Amino acid sequence: MSNGLSQKMIIFLMGLMILTGSINTIANKLQNSSMAFDQPYQHAWFITFCMFLGEVLCIFPYLIHRKKWEIAETVTEGTPQEKDRPSKKEASPFHLALPALCDFFGSTIMTFGLTMMAGSVYQMFRGSLIFFTAAFSVIFLKSKLYRHNYLALLIIISGLVLVGLANQIFPSPRPEGCSSGSSVKESFWGIILVIVSQLFAATQFIIEEKFMKHYNCHPLKAVGWEGIWGSLLYLILLVSFEFIPCNPGSYITSLICSPDDKGKWYLENTIFAFRQMGDNRLLLFYVILYICSIAVFNFVGISVSKYSSSAARSVVDTLRTSVVWAFFLMPFIKKCERESFSWLQLLGFFLLVLGTVIYNELLVIPFCGFNLYTKKGIDKREEEGGKESQVQLVSQKTSSESLPKEKGENIENEENIEKEENIENKENEV
Predict the structure, then answer these.
(1) Is the pLDDT of residue 396 over 70?
(2) What is the C-alpha to C-alpha distance for residues 157 and 159, in angstroms, rounded to an integer?
(3) Burial class (CB in 10 A: 0-12, 13-18, 19+), 178
(4) I need a labelling partner for 376 at 20 to 30 A (CA). Which of 37, 40, 71, 156 fits?
């Protein structure tokens, strides 16, 4: 057992996290490639709104958890026990508005980035989050990085460079019958957008970490309220975007606007999105699957952090990239949406995983001092220092105890000598 859960259950939760995390990206990408009323389902704004709806669902397990806590910690008078109440002040939903705003910008930009690039490349470039989070933690939280952290970040950057090269310098040829368009150009801007989105995500994580030091807030409550704030903001925007027309001939329009069945373009056309879901039941299934997978992924991810570790969660989250890539390599994927295998991209992915496990100290390099400032290394030195101090205390105690004994023996010897001398003197007198 581990913290109340068996090892098999923890492994099951990790597997479920990989599955639901992969479904997030896959269902999102499948929506982008769907058609209805002879028009593509081009609704990045609405898809991001659905993501926030998935986060809102996390508030319900939090309320259940809170109710169970109140019942379990209630004494005979019917009030929670004072000793079990959290020492920090409970967070207000308004405290979560700023992280939600970062989530709003980051998720929106990231969704648009996915529309311009392959799902696996998108997932790999999300790995840049660890680099920005580390940099911001040093700048704003005054955290300290050690040599194994810097090595891990260097490896991660190298992996991202290789993935970018595989996508930009050595792109796969488009299958016959598929429009070439400006796929390399769009993919480049998609990479830029995903990297920018990770800046907002890293800012969100830093704000949440600083916030958690001063307030008590359950992770499910944080995710749920950030979803509520994001959904409310999007409801306002989606209504407004319905009345903002776009220029049909513009390249920017084709990236951020939505067409309808009459050939008109608007910044977002939510009503037409619902019509398309009604016309294409498979598309409707993708949307529902996307919303549910977001909720389950967040819930399971928090459970993995609780019953295993945050390091394990980060590595498991990285591994879902392989599932996304493998899915889009399958022969049942439409040839125009199917990805191709690249050894350079595989090497980049391997470096991303390697950097992540080194950064989170799941893999410790036992030479060149890379193991000195890991948690195990620090604990080992503290343990050795504690043993040395204990040895010194024991030796000091032993010496202090032996000192009076030696003094007593000396006194006794002196008394015996004096007695012998007195006896000799008396004999001489006689």
Answers:
(1) no
(2) 5
(3) middle
(4) 156
Count of CB atoms situated within 10 Å of the CB of 381? 12
- How far, in Å, CA of 405 to CA of 134, rounded? 60
Output Rg (C-alpha) for the chain, integer angstroms: 32
Q: What is the 3-state secondary structure (H, E, C) of the chain?
A: CECCECHHHHHHHHHHHHHHHHHHHHHHHHHHCCEECCEECCCHHHHHHHHHHHHHCCHHHHHHHHHHHHHHCECCCCCECHHHCCCCEECCHHHHHHHHHHHHHHHHHHHHHHCCCCHHHHHHHHHHHHHHHHHHHHHHCCCCCCHHHHHHHHHHHHHHHHHHHHHHCCCCCCCCCCCCCCHHHHHHHHHHHHHHHHHHHHHHHHHHHHHHCCEECCHHHHHHHHHHHHHHHHHHHHHHHCCCECCCCCHHHHHHCEECCCCCEECCCHHHHHHHHHHCHHHHHHHHHHHHHHHHHHHHHHHHHHHCCHHHHHHHHHHHHHHHHHHHCCCCCCCCCCCCCCHHHHHHHHHHHHHHHHHCCCCCCCCCCCCCCCHHHHHHHHHHHHHHHHHHHHHHHHHHHHHHHHHHHHHHHHHHHHHHHHHHHHHHHC
Interatomic CA distance for residues 37 and 398, integer angstroms: 91
- Say if CB 282 and CB 34 are below 8 A apart: yes
pTM for this predicted structure? 0.81
Distance of alpha carbon 331 from alpha carbon 215, whole angstroms: 50
Least confident of 42-46, 138-142, 231-235, 375-379: 375-379
pLDDT, position 413:
56
Please report the pLDDT score of residue 217 as a whole number.
85
The answer to whether 312 touches 13, Cβ cutoff 8 Å, is: no
Closest CA to 69 of 53, 90, 96: 90
Per-residue CA distances from 356 to 110, 136, 162, 275, 390 (Å): 21, 17, 16, 43, 38
Across 189-193, 249-253, 285-289, least confident range = 249-253
Assigned token pair, 28: 């999102």
For residue range 293-307, list pLDDT tens digits in order.
999 998 888 888 777
Domain ranges of the chain: 7-152+183-338+353-379, 384-430
